[in-house]
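Hey,
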Amino acid sequence: MHHPQITPRFAPEITPSVEELEEQERRLVFDRFTHDDAWALGSLLVELARERRAPVAVDIHRGGQQLFHAALPGSTPDNDAWISRKRRVVERYGASSYLVGARFRAKGTTFEESSRLDPDTYAAHGGCFPVRVEDAGVIGTVTVSGLPQLQDHRFVVEALERFLGK
């Protein structure tokens, strides 16, 4: 029998709903996104990753150009491959890589089974978020790779919330 005073119950991470993920994307929109913004956002992600000793790689792209990249201790070349695969999903679907995967799961299938896209080229795993500019749409991506996918996603969202003051 479970006694809350004696043995704390393990609380698994709650998977966000499609609606919650869509709300994040409506909320986390830039007025503009410059090279300096990419540097500042990337630097914030690196600072947070260092504080947490997170073994991640961080990447920011705009319009097909890589504006920021950093690989922290513990990350590997495999993280760069994941970044590329997740980024292609965001560029193709205009939504976060985690949301794209969640939409397939909500339909009772998986991205790999139903997207008809090569899984060596596309990965609908959490960690890549669209850089959306007001009145311009998705103009780039910010990606983290190295943690479990929900943690990668939440890490990017947290940094965007801080950066945008939301």
